[in-house]
């Protein structure tokens, strides 16, 4: 059978917006079929990685991201906390490992980490790494020096999302720029860590913004090794939660969400594409289409950072129904930069 050209071609960072728009425009079944081909050429389509999130410092964030429950500007009822104790973080990581997670992602609601926070953060990385899980952190903007410190501590991935297209970005956050996000990604890459960067679909953006969002990721100097695709979790009291409530834009169309996953898979063939926030409002069939279209990781457990997630039993039942298995840690080595070098 003749294969589609995307399946065989080299990984490219020279995608044009027109090419990406043309992928989005394909008939749905053709798009998903092509994405599934690319997926199979680069990954084991029968395995999905389980990742666990922990909010190690919640709320009170000085930034004004319109989607986020943790911004000081949001009236979401999320209580601000201090940075958690290292011991409590490691207990939580051990529970995640017991539940089958191979990746532990720690998030802090900061504009950027302060120097005084770094020793505890580094201890967290050491402790989780010693358990044999992949480590990921998302702590806001990083200087070159902070990125180097985290890399030296052995942090595998740093998550910093571009969230949407460069054009739409100013409507979503005014306290930082799209360029600021790219600068941190560059510091992370230069420090030798894997980049985790993706964004949110369903913030009332146009198809063209989704094209611009994928284009910005797929034309970075290197593809992010990890690409989380979140569906907006509308939170009451946030700018976007309030603005979209009761409108037709309150939930992204499932087919359009799957299209975004498929285009991410085709344009960034080697990356882990993560079906992230928003699964609580997705049917089993929509999630199955996301896996078909190349998503190969989910967040496990009942809570993301502050919002709801399906929970382990529900996901175990879904995996059983679909004949999927949780990815083992040994299967992940090929994705790490260290292994590639
Ligand atoms: N403060 C850090 C930062 O902004 O990079 C890290 C934490 S932030 C909560 C991590 C990512 O979660 C955001 O970039 C956004 O993509 C996603 N996120 C936050 N709130 C969300 C929501 N309500 N629905 C979907 N995704 C969300
Ligand atoms: C990402 O892209 N999604 C995760 C992780 N990176 C840190 C966070 C989702 C958060 C959803 C909203 C909440 O729970 O507050
Ligand atoms: Fe703060 Fe991150 Fe939430 Fe923006 S997304 S308000 S930076 S915690």
Provide a descriptive summary of the structure in words.
The chain has 14 helices and 10 strands. The two termini are 34 Å apart. By secondary structure, it is an alpha/beta fold. Strands 1, 2, 3, 4, 5, 6, 7, 8, 9 and 10 form a 10-stranded parallel β-sheet that branches. Helix content is 41%, strand content 14%.
Notable features of this structure?
binds 6-(5-methyl-2-OXO-imidazolidin-4-yl)-hexanoic acid; binds S-adenosylmethionine; binds iron/sulfur cluster; 10 strands; alpha/beta; 14% strand; 341 residues
Helix content: 40-55%
Low-confidence stretches: none
Q: Give the N-to-C terminal Cα separation.
A: 34 Å
The whole-angstrom Rg is 19 Å
Mean pLDDT: 94
- What is the SS-derived class? alpha/beta
Query: What bound compounds does this protein have?
Result: S-adenosylmethionine, 6-(5-methyl-2-OXO-imidazolidin-4-yl)-hexanoic acid, iron/sulfur cluster
Which series of helices and strands comes N to C?
HHHEHEHEHEHHEEHEHHEHEHEH
Give a quick precis of the structure.
By secondary structure, the protein is an alpha/beta fold.
Give the SSE layout.
Elements lengths: L4 H4 L8 H9 L2 H15 L4 E11 L28 H13 L4 E6 L9 H13 L3 E5 L5 H10 L3 E3 L6 H7 L5 H13 L3 E3 L2 E3 L5 H12 L7 E6 L7 H6 L9 H14 L4 E4 L8 H9 L4 E4 L11 H11 L2 E2 L10 H4 L1
Parallel strand pairs: 1-2, 1-9, 1-10, 2-3, 3-4, 4-5, 6-7, 7-8, 8-9
Helix pairs in contact: 2-9, 3-11, 4-5, 5-6, 6-8, 9-11, 11-12
Bound molecules: S-adenosylmethionine (SAM), 6-(5-methyl-2-OXO-imidazolidin-4-yl)-hexanoic acid and iron/sulfur cluster.
């Amino acid at each position: 059978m003749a294969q589609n050209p995307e399946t065989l071609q080299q990984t490219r960072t020279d995608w044009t917006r027109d090419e990406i728009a043309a992928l989005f425009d394909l008939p749905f079944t053709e798009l998903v079929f092509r994405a599934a081909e690319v997926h199979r050429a680069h990954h084991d389509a029968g395995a999905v990685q389980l990742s666990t999130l922990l909010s190690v410092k919640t709320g009170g964030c000085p930034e004004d991201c319109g989607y986020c429950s943790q911004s000081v500007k949001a009236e979401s009822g999320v209580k601000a906390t201090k940075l958690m104790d290292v011991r409590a973080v490691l207990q939580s990581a051990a529970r995640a490992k017991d539940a089958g997670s191979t990746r532990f992602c720690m998030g802090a609601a900061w504009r950027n980490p302060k120097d005084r926070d770094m020793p505890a953060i580094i201890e967290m990385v050491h402790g989780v790494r010693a358990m044999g899980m992949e480590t990921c952190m998302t702590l806001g903007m990083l200087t070159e020096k902070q990125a180097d410190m985290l890399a030296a501590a052995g942090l595998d991935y740093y998550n910093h999302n571009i969230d949407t297209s460069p054009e739409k970005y100013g409507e979503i956050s005014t306290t930082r720029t799209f360029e600021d996000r790219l600068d941190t990604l560059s510091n992370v890459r230069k420090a030798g860590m894997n980049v985790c960067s993706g964004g949110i679909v369903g913030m009332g953006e146009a198809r063209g913004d989704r094209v611009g969002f994928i284009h910005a990721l797929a034309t970075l100097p290197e593809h992010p090794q990890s690409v989380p695709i979140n569906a907006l979790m509308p939170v009451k009291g946030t700018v976007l939660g309030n603005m979209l409530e009761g409108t037709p834009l309150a939930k992204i169309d499932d087919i359009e969400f799957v299209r975004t996953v498929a285009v991410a898979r085709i344009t960034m063939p080697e990356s882990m594409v993560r079906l992230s926030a928003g699964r609580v409002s997705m049917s089993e069939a929509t999630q199955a289409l996301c896996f078909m279209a190349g998503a190969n990781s989910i967040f496990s457990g009942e809570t993301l950072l502050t919002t709801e997630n399906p929970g382990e039993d529900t996901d175990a039942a879904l995996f059983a129904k679909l004949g999927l298995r949780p990815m083992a840690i040994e299967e992940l080595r090929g994705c790490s930069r260290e292994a590639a070098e």
